[in-house]
């Protein structure tokens, strides 16, 4: 653990405290900010809530890049994970696709596919990246499908959330256990 200079001085004071109660208070001060609480579904950084059928949160740019690569979303997801996949799309992502206009009408038609689960949003604002990060933080049962570097960087900080991305005209997945059928290249 990385302590700042004043933490070391407080640590020495903690060892030389005469009262046991003061010593325990100082130790709780040290341990509380440095011991993050992880959900019980995580086991050695792998999420035990993930399993077939996989629920995959789809981002706007993932749909657009899939269209450019001429890939069928649902079939390509199943080819990647070797199991049934249920693509999920939030209201914020749908609003983002609708805002893109007539140029992205194919992406909008794909997003309105009945095979997609529509997830309602209860928060204010329509920024899709914040919506996806918030949903994945609350519920660890999703895989996030995105090509956006900033969103990938934010999601990598959340333990136990795999990321699906597009490379070489096929879908790949990172941070997924071998037991769950993740292909290794």
UniProtKB/TrEMBL annotation:
<dbReference type="GO" id="GO:0042274">
    <property type="term" value="P:ribosomal small subunit biogenesis"/>
</dbReference>
<feature type="domain" description="PIN">
    <location>
        <begin position="54"/>
        <end position="153"/>
    </location>
</feature>
<keyword id="KW-0698">rRNA processing</keyword>
<protein>
    <recommendedName>
        <fullName>rRNA-processing protein FCF1 homolog</fullName>
    </recommendedName>
</protein>
<dbReference type="GO" id="GO:0032040">
    <property type="term" value="C:small-subunit processome"/>
</dbReference>
<keyword id="KW-0539">Nucleus</keyword>
<dbReference type="Pfam" id="PF04900">
    <property type="entry name" value="Fcf1"/>
</dbReference>
<dbReference type="InterPro" id="IPR029060">
    <property type="entry name" value="PIN-like_dom_sf"/>
</dbReference>
<comment type="function">
    <text>Part of the small subunit (SSU) processome, first precursor of the small eukaryotic ribosomal subunit. During the assembly of the SSU processome in the nucleolus, many ribosome biogenesis factors, an RNA chaperone and ribosomal proteins associate with the nascent pre-rRNA and work in concert to generate RNA folding, modifications, rearrangements and cleavage as well as targeted degradation of pre-ribosomal RNA by the RNA exosome.</text>
</comment>
<comment type="subunit">
    <text>Part of the small subunit (SSU) processome, composed of more than 70 proteins and the RNA chaperone small nucleolar RNA (snoRNA) U3.</text>
</comment>
<dbReference type="InterPro" id="IPR037503">
    <property type="entry name" value="Fcf1_PIN"/>
</dbReference>
<keyword id="KW-0690">Ribosome biogenesis</keyword>
<dbReference type="GO" id="GO:0006364">
    <property type="term" value="P:rRNA processing"/>
</dbReference>
<dbReference type="InterPro" id="IPR002716">
    <property type="entry name" value="PIN_dom"/>
</dbReference>
<comment type="similarity">
    <text>Belongs to the UTP23/FCF1 family. FCF1 subfamily.</text>
</comment>
<dbReference type="InterPro" id="IPR006984">
    <property type="entry name" value="Fcf1/UTP23"/>
</dbReference>
């Amino acid at each position: 653990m990385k302590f700042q200079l004043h933490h070391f001085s407080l640590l020495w004071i903690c060892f030389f405290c005469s009262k046991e109660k003061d010593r325990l208070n100082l130790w709780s001060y040290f341990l509380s900010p440095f011991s993050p609480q992880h959900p019980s579904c995580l086991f050695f950084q792998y999420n035990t809530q993930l399993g077939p059928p996989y629920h995959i949160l789809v981002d706007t740019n993932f749909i657009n890049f899939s269209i450019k690569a001429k890939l069928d979303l649902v079939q390509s997801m199943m080819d990647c994970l070797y199991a049934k996949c249920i693509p999920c799309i939030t209201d914020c992502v749908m609003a983002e696709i609708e805002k893109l206009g007539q140029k992205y009408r194919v992406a909008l038609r794909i997003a309105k596919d009945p095979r997609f689960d529509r997830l309602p949003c209860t928060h204010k604002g329509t920024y899709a990246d914040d919506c996806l990060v918030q949903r994945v933080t609350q519920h660890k049962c999703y895989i996030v499908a995105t090509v956006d570097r900033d969103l990938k960087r934010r999601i990598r900080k959340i333990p136990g959330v795999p990321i699906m991305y597009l490379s070489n005209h096929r879908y790949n997945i990172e941070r997924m256990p071998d037991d769950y059928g993740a292909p290794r290249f």
